[in-house]
C-alpha cells in the first residue's frame, strides 16, 4: 500500500503542477455557473412562470428563484463531475507520451497498482474541484432562494461523490487506450460538448422526442442528473405543497425538470436510480480492470 500511496501522491502532484490544466478544471464549473445564471436562469424562470400561470398558481419570487437555482446547480454539478474527471485523468496519457509509464512499469510496481493509482488520483482531484464547485453552488442558492434542509445538502454531496466515481470510471475506460495528446484532446472536447445534452443537464429529457427519450433512458448519466435534481429541488417542492399547490401541479413540474424519470412509461424510483448508478460504476470499473490485464493493452502501453 505504500507504493500505491506514493503513486497517488505523485499523480496528484503532476496534475496540480500543471497550473494551466488545474486552473482550467477549477474555473470551468465557476464559468458554467456564471453562464447558467446569466443566460439560462431567465429562460428557466420564464418557463416556470408560464407553467404556473397555466395552472392558475402564483408564487413568491424567492420560491421561484429557489426552483430555478436548484435546476441550475444540479445541471452544473451533473456535467462538471464527469467532464472534470476527463481533464484529471489525462496524466495517464501524458505518462505514455513522455515515457514515464515505461519507467514505472520496469520498477517493482505491479501494473494493477499503477492502474489503481491513476483511478484514485483522478477521483481525489475531481472530487476536490467539484467539492469547491458545490460550495459555490450552495452559496448561490443562499443568495437567491434557500430551501434545502441539512439532509438535502448531504444527499446532494452524496450524489456528487457518486457522479465523480462514475465520471472517473468512464474517463478511465475511454482514456486508457489513448496514446497521444491529440487523441486525449479530441475525446475531452467531444465529452465536454456533448455530455450535458445526453445526460439531460442542458435540456430536460422530457423536452426531447419520444425516440430520443427512450435512447437516453439507457444512459446511466441521466439518472445521476435526476438524483441531483431531486435533492437540489426537494425543499422547493415541499414548500409548494405546504402553501397549497395541488399535487398534480407539483408532479407536473417534477416531470418537466426530470425529477421524475420514466423508463418506457414506468416511473423510476430514487432507489432504482441509485442502483443504476452504482451498477454502472461497478461495470465500468470491471471493464477498466479487464483493459489493464496483461494481453489487453496494459503491457503494450507500458
Which spans of ≥5 residues are poorly predicted at pLDDT below 50?
297-302
Order of SSEs: HHHHHHHHHHHEEHH
Kindly state the percentage of residues in helix: over 70%
What class do helices, strands and sheet pairing give? Answer: mainly alpha
Please give the count of helices.
13
Cross-sheet strand order for the largest sheet: 1-2
Q: How is the main sheet built?
A: 2 strands, antiparallel
Q: Please compute the radius of gyration using only Cα atoms.
A: 21 Å
Fold and architecture overview:
With 302 residues, this protein is an all-alpha fold. It has 13 helices and two strands, in the order H-H-H-H-H-H-H-H-H-H-H-E-E-H-H. A two-stranded antiparallel ribbon has the order 1-2. Helix 2 packs across helix 6 and helix 3 packs antiparallel against helix 6. The longest helix is centred in the first third of the chain and has 36 residues. The C terminus is likely disordered.
List the helices and strands and how they pair.
Blueprint: H1 2-17, H2 19-54, H3 61-88, H4 91-98, H5 100-105, H6 111-144, H7 150-175, H8 181-198, H9 210-216, H10 220-242, H11 247-256, E1 261-263, E2 266-268, H12 270-291, H13 298-301
Antiparallel strand pairs: 1-2
Helix pairs in contact: 1-6, 2-3, 2-6, 3-6, 3-7, 3-8, 3-10, 6-7, 7-10, 7-12, 10-12
In short:
By secondary structure, the chain is an all-alpha fold.
